[in-house]
Write a structure and sequence with these properties.
Distance between the termini: 36 Å
Number of helices: 13
Shape: elongated
Bound molecules: iron/sulfur cluster
Structural class: alpha/beta
Low-confidence stretches: 1-5, 336-346
CATH topology of the largest domain: TIM Barrel
Strand content: 15-25%
Number of domains: 2
Number of strands: 12
CATH class of the largest domain: Alpha Beta
Order of helices and strands: HHHEEEHEEEHEHEHEHHHEHEHEH
Largest sheet: 10 strands, mixed
Strand order of the largest sheet: 1-2-3-4-7-8-9-10-11-12
Radius of gyration: 21 Å
Helix content: 25-40%
């Protein structure tokens, strides 16, 4: 267990639950029974775990009095990108976004659904394009609150989530112990059993944690929020670049490449007049090619309270074509998510402001 506060039962890994039951003098097979109720049968309450003796159910309910998450609101229509607002036990909110596969990339019949998962309430990193950082960090999510987003998204949408990106609210690598526990729940056969290669962690570039995660045995994918190919340009957008400038970041990424099989991805939000100069494209192409990385270009979405704008489509294509000419696999997401999949954190900020009577 990661903290002294009362957690949800869903936050426990198999090891933690087994240790607890050993301490309580319960037989070993109870661990498997409880995990089965939680992650396979997905019951709403401990009381519904009908093959556990009543005294054990009572003891569990006393020790773990709260649910991990509750669904508060969904925006977006079925078969398009949907955003779920989720209420935490302390009245805070986080968001998850479910994104169906693009028919152009995966065919009309694809049932691939990607869930964009949050890892913290708010964020301390203050990237200038992002609504999540506007109020700073409130707290880390625990493992059950992270993994529980998958269960709720599946319940509400009726779809199976088969791909995950840790790209929602928060900097996942700033919450590494809980993130790793959540990954264990998500990838294990006793948990949600989604293959590690279907998980992508997106980071603003926390160098020590990238190195630590590189040594983790699971073949997780890594995406870097780059948004600038020089320290000068990146530093204007991402304050984290002052602590870990590009030279240090790229040394960690070279180490990553020695430990993992999957290609790295660079996320690059194109912001008019800030980082969309074609010289940045040429430098980005060189850096990506040196690491054999892919690049996702994302034209900027307007955030209330921020005054940057989106470059026109012709310019975005020109930027992309420079990368493609350098043989860097590059995607340019012109269509998807322009409506509700705007910068993370906006729905949650509005809801918290309303409830606070602002
Ligand atoms: S982009 Fe990610 S790391 Fe940066 S402020 Fe937003 S949530 Fe935090």
């Amino acid at each position: 267990m990661q903290s002294g506060i009362a957690e949800a039962l869903q936050s426990l890994t198999r090891r933690e639950l087994a240790d607890l039951f050993a301490e309580w003098g319960e037989p070993e097979y109870r661990t498997g029974q409880v995990l089965d109720w939680l992650w396979k049968k997905r019951v709403a309450s401990i009381d519904a775990m009908s093959n556990l003796p009543a005294p054990l159910r009572e003891r569990l309910a006393k020790q773990f009095p709260r649910a991990a998450l509750q669904h508060a609101e969904t925006s977006g229509a079925a078969d398009t990108t949907r955003k779920f607002l989720l209420r935490l036990h302390d009245g805070r909110y986080v968001e998850s976004v479910l994104i169906p596969a693009s028919p152009a990339l995966y065919g009309e019949k694809s049932d691939r659904h990607t869930l964009c998962v949050s890892s913290q309430v708010g964020c301390a990193y203050g990237c200038k394009f992002c609504a999540s950082g506007l109020d700073g960090l409130t707290r880390n999510l625990d493992a059950g609150e992270i993994a529980g987003q998958v269960v709720l998204a599946e319940e509400v949408s009726g779809r199976k989530v088969n791909n995950l990106v840790f790209m929602g609210m928060g900097e996942p690598l700033a919450n590494l112990p809980n993130l790793l526990a959540a990954i264990e729940i998500i990838t294990s056969p006793w948990g949600l059993h989604i293959g590690a290669r279907h998980l992508t962690i997106s980071t603003s570039g926390l160098v020590p944690q990238i190195e630590e995660l590189a040594d983790h045995p699971r073949q997780i994918r890594l995406a870097i929020s780059l948004h600038g190919a020089t320290d000068e340009v990146r530093g204007r957008i991402m304050p984290v670049n002052r602590k870990w400038p590009l030279e240090k970041l790229f040394a960690a990424l070279r180490y990553w490449n020695t430990r993992k099989k999957q290609k790295l991805t660079f996320e690059y939000i194109l912001i008019a007049g800030v980082n969309d100069d074609l010289q940045q494209a040429r430098l980005l192409a060189r850096k990506a090619a040196a690491l054999d990385a892919k690049v996702n270009l994302i034209p900027y979405n307007t955030v209330e309270g921020l005054d940057w704008s989106r470059p026109d489509e012709a310019h975005c294509r020109e930027f992309r074509d420079i990368l493609r000419k350098a043989r860097v696999p590059t995607t340019l997401r012109l269509e998807k998510g322009h409506d509700i999949n705007a910068a993370c954190g906006q729905l949650r900020l509005k809801r918290e402001a309303t409830e606070a009577g602002k």
